[in-house]
């Protein structure tokens, strides 16, 4: 199978001469602007092939599973009915592979190539992509072989079903795990030292002051706290674990082949995580560069109308939806303009006069340098948090929407800067998926799993939760509890692998934890 | 063959499995009734994608753009995640057959009955402009120009004459066919309630699908009767409300007449189906019915099927009479349908023999 895909990627799919010429020109231009990318291999595909590649998440060598077939069917339908079409697809590998659809106009192909160099530059230089495996194509191919082997041995449906269970948990990972140490592992020594420490929490004081500084009740409280800490250290997991899938992988009673499969799903989920974390930046960055290169250098007179039409199609914002391409590219331009005109630093912050703000231009000219710096270090959350200014929100007419239950419609809610920014950051923080923590793997001493969802105003979708918890309970082989809130009331969902029950209380009374960022 | 085709096939298998599991529901719901205009039906299937822990629809959003934002439409209702799967009538019928373990129907008789079809395979010198064959015309003109020595490679202009023009034309093709006619007779007398009629219609619909699956050409005729019988179109058959007395013989008479006039026995496989609540007007009429069945309808047909719906008014006598008259004739198949949920079983009884 790997052989086929190798051929699929490398042979007989070279660009036709006119596109090859265009590609060289665009590559030159991109390098001239200071973009720094991996070698990029362009592959010509028919629409079936590109839909296939898209269904496999960009990797034609991916393991077999029916859900890819389902996605493929949906894309085929949607393309055949003229509802959507895939212009570009590029994967984060070295060398990078980008897929072009052979029936697109030449001007589209140029646009896509310019866009792709933007993406590949981003993949290569953005810090959040640094820990990803640049040889993912090979790893995916290895995964496919493994899955196939397990299918041969254990049966196709059994393997598919287990993969299905794992995939339904693949958004319950910790996207920040590769970048920071969540917790120090507590050793037996630590526990022993803590329990031997008789002078718990005593504040330093001279003898005669001691009864006043460390009164008995204070010491009592300190001791109680230490004891609680100690209990927590001995508990399992020691501190809440956001990497639910990783936790299951390490601790669920799995057979070898199951562990193998879960590891595959886990690795792929972690590989794709940075793309979700930088969607707005990444699409914005690529769009910024393709518009610049196209309009300043590449376009011929004859191509302008088609280009404008197709570019506008990508950049269109529909009411009630955020278009990452549009928001991203506008923010990048906004940043460039600000640093070109010196609109930063204390003097700018202190300026409150709108007229003066409008005129503000120190001729700093640092825009280009600034955007390259930003693309290196930020992710979407920090990007929006730092650069979504009041000015920008007002200028681009951003607003929040909410769902009106009475009229069953989405209605505009607020145009206030605070509200809009809060909402955007909320959306990014959760990325549409709730944060779930494993807080206890031995509830009531019966090896039941307790998950906690720190509720931030949004309720979980119950029917999906039921199925996901069912999958988790089957993997964990013991009942699983998820505590969350439903319409502001605490509830606990308990799934034992066959049915789910709801209790209107939490397993743990107090908020189960505080997150420690170190 | 793309690699994805395997995955697509797996997905289709899964869909089929789901459809099969839900088949009973679709069959008794009557939702698909009469949906055979297109050959593809769309079946809503719950729960096929892979679930994730996600937020429900208490979502808030952010919009962008000037002018009034009218907000996006909230999609489907909460809690309902349906995937519309398209499946062809044939596939559905096949599933039905597999589920009920129906044997394949063996078309009877004349394998060499042929039909003539016209296909546009030929070329002719005369024809309508809409069928002009550009490439052949050009070739002809080019050939003539070269032969006449007028062809100039530097200025390769070809002007076709009237004689050069070629048209597509059809040639007759004969192909073997096995044809079948299905006669649906339904009792619509006063004793048949709305629910009984609904059951009968559902059953007729699925039987129709199954038979279509086996024959290229199926004629369907719909007869309804109370005290008198008449032929109606499909639409009326599935909608009609009538009331009155019941003379079953009227329907049989009409059926015999239709067969005699239009369906030569040598070329046609004939499948009469009769549905009633079994409450005939008189024993005299029943006797004449049995007479007609014995001498004509049954010998002519591949199989004569009778489905009787239980009804609170009907005596159900006709079923007993038929059983007495045809104690062990393989060609006469009887079935009773107590309620909606027994449609599947009834179909199995009627079609399970595969004559």
Q: Considering DSSP H and I runs of 4 or more, what fraction of the residues of chain A is helical?
A: 40-55%
CATH superfamily label of the largest domain in chain B: von Willebrand factor, type A domain
User: In the CATH hierarchy, what is the class of the largest domain in chain B?
Assistant: Alpha Beta
Question: How many domains in all of chain B?
Answer: 3
Care to give the gist of this entry?
With about 525 residues, chain A is of the alpha+beta class.
What does this structure look like?
The complex is a heterodimer of chains A (518) and B (355). In chain A, 53% of the residues lie in helices and 11% in strands. Chain A is an alpha+beta fold and 518 residues long. Chain A has 4 domains: 2-126 and 278-297, no CATH class; 139-181 and 242-276, no CATH class; 316-430, no CATH class; 437-503, no CATH class. Chain A has a 5-stranded mixed beta sheet. Chain A has a 3-stranded mixed beta sheet with strand order 1-3-2. The longest helix of chain A is centred in the middle third of the chain and has 22 residues, at 256-277. The radius of gyration of chain A is 27 Å and the shape is globular. The model of chain B is unreliable at 66-81 (pLDDT under 50). Chain B has 9 helices and 11 strands. Chain B has helices at residues 4-29, 89-100, 134-147, 194-214, 234-239, 248-262, 283-300, 317-325, 343-351; strands spanning 40-46, 60-63, 82-88, 114-124, 167-176, 179-187, 217-225, 229-232, 268-276, 304-309, 332-337. A 6-stranded mixed beta sheet of chain B has the order 8-7-6-9-10-11, with helices on both faces. A two-stranded antiparallel ribbon of chain B has the order 1-3. Chain B has 3 domains: 12-48 and 81-101; 114-174, no CATH class; 178-351, Rossmann fold (3-Layer(aba) Sandwich), CATH 3.40.50. Chain B starts with a helix and ends with a helix. Classes of the chains: A alpha+beta (518), B alpha/beta (355). Chains A and B meet through helix 3, helix 4, helix 7, strand 4 and strand 5 of A and helix 1 and strand 2 of B.
């Amino acid at each position: 199978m790997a052989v086929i895909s190798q051929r699929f990627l490398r042979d007989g799919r070279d660009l036709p001469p006119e596109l090859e010429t265009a590609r060289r020109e665009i590559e030159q231009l991109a390098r001239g602007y200071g973009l720094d990318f991996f070698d990029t291999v362009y592959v010509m595909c028919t629409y079936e092939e590109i839909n296939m590649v898209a269904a496999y998440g960009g990797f034609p060598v991916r393991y077999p599973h029916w859900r890819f077939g389902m996605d493929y069917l949906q894309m085929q339908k949607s393309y055949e009915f003229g509802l959507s079409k895939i212009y570009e697809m590029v994967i984060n590998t070295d060398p990078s592979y980008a897929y072009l659809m052979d029936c697109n106009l030449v001007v589209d192909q140029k646009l896509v190539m310019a866009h792709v160099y933007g993406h590949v530059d981003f993949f290569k230089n953005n810090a959040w992509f640094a820990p990803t495996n640049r040889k993912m194509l090979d790893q995916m191919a290895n995964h496919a072989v493994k899955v196939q082997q397990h299918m041969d041995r254990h049966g196709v449906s059994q393997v598919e079903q287990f993969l299905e269970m794992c995939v339904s948990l693949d958004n319950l990972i910790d996207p920040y795990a590769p970048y920071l140490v969540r917790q120090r592992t507590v050793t037996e020594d630590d526990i022993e030292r803590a329990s031997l420490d008789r002078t718990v929490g005593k504040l330093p004081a001279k003898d005669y002051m001691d009864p006043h500084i460390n009164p008995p009740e204070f010491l009592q409280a300190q001791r109680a706290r230490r004891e609680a800490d100690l209990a927590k250290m001995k508990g399992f997991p020691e501190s809440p674990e956001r990497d639910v899938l990783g936790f299951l992988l390490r601790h669920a009673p799995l057979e070898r082949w199951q562990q193998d499969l879960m590891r595959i799903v886990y690795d792929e989920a972690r590989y794709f995580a940075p793309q979700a974390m930088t969607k707005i930046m990444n699409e914005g960055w690529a769009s910024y560069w393709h518009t610049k290169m196209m309009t300043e250098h590449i376009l011929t007179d004859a191509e302008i109308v088609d280009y404008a039409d197709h570019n506008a199609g990508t950049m269109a914002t529909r009411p009630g939806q955020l278009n990452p391409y549009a928001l991203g590219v506008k923010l990048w331009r906004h940043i460039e303009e600000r640093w070109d005109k010196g609109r930063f630093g204390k003097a700018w912050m202190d300026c409150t006069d709108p007229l003066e703000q409008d005129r503000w231009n120190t001729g700093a000219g640092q825009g280009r340098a600034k955007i390259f710096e930003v693309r290196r270090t930020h992710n979407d959350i920090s990007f929006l948090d730092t650069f979504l200014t009041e000015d920008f929100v007002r200028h681009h007419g951003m607003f929040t929407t909410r769902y009106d239950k009475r009229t069953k419609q989405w209605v505009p809610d607020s145009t206030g800067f605070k509200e809009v920014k809060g909402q955007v950051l909320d959306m990014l923080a959760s990325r549409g998926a709730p944060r779930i923590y494993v807080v206890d793997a031995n509830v009531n001493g019966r090896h039941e799993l307790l998950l906690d969802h720190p509720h931030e105003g949004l309720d979980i979708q119950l029917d999906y939760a039921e199925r996901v918890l069912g999958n988790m309970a089957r993997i964990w082989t013991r009942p699983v509890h998820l505590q969350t809130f439903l319409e502001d009331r605490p509830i606990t969902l308990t799934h034992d692998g066959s049915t789910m029950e709801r209790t209107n209380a939490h397993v743990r009374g107090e908020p189960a934890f505080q997150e420690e960022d170190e | 063959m793309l690699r994805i085709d395997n995955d697509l096939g797996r997905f289709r298998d899964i869909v089929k499995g789901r459809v099969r599991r839900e088949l009973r529901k679709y069959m008794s719901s009557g939702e698909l009734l009469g949906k055979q205009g297109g050959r593809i039906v769309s079946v809503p299937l719950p729960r096929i994608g892979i679930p994730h822990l996600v937020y429900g629809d208490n979502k808030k959003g952010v919009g962008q753009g000037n002018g009034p934002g009218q907000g996006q439409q909230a999609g489907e209702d909460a809690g309902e995640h349906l995937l519309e799967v398209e499946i062809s009538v044939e596939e559905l019928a096949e599933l039905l057959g597999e589920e009920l373990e129906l044997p394949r129907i063996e078309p009877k008789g004349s394998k060499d009955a042929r039909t003539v079809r016209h296909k546009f395979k030929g070329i002719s010198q005369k024809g309508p402009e809409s069928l002009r064959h550009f490439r052949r015309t050009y070739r002809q003109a080019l050939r003539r120009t070269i032969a006449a020595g007028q062809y100039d490679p530097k200025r390769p202009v070809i002007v076709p004459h009237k004689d050069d023009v070629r048209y597509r034309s059809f040639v007759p093709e004969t192909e073997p066919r096995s044809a079948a006619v299905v006669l649906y007779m339904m009792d619509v007398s006063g004793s048949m309630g709305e629910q009984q009629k609904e059951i009968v219609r559902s059953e007729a619909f699925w039987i129709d699908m199954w038979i279509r699956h086996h024959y290229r050409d199926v004629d369907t005729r719909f007869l309804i009767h109370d005290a008198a019988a008449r032929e109606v179109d499909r639409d009326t058959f599935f909608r009609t409300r009538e009331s009155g007395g019941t003379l079953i013989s009227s329907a049989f008479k009409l059926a015999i007449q239709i067969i005699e006039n239009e369906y030569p026995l040598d070329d046609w496989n004939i499948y009469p189906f009769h549905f009633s609540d079994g409450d005939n007007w008189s024993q005299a009429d029943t006797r004449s019915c049995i007479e007609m069945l014995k001498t004509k309808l049954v010998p002519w047909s591949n199989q004569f099927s009778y489905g009787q719906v239980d009804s609170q008014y009907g005596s159900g006598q006709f079923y007993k009479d038929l059983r007495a008259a045809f104690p062990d004739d393989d060609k006469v198949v009887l079935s009773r349908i107590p309620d909606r949920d027994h449609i599947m079983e009834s179909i199995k009884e009627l079609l399970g023999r595969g004559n």
